[in-house]
Amino acid sequence: MADPKTEELQLEEIHRERAEREQADESDLEREERIHEARADKHAYLKEKLAERARSEEENG
Length: 61
Prior knowledge:
Mean pLDDT: 94
Number of helices: 2
Number of domains: 1
Helix content: over 70%
Number of strands: 0
Strand content: under 5%
Largest sheet: none
Shape: elongated
Distance between the termini: 6 Å
Low-confidence stretches: none
Order of helices and strands: HH
């Protein structure tokens, strides 16, 4: 079973990614849109790394 803290962190990254994508969609300036998309991509990356960590915790534990 994955560590509850890992699952909590995954949920936080999901919420952050969604918020950044919403801000990107609502941005009037192309520069702001790119910034929010980059942040969303970062949160998506972190979410995936946390998913890998959760799988590892489940396998080892």
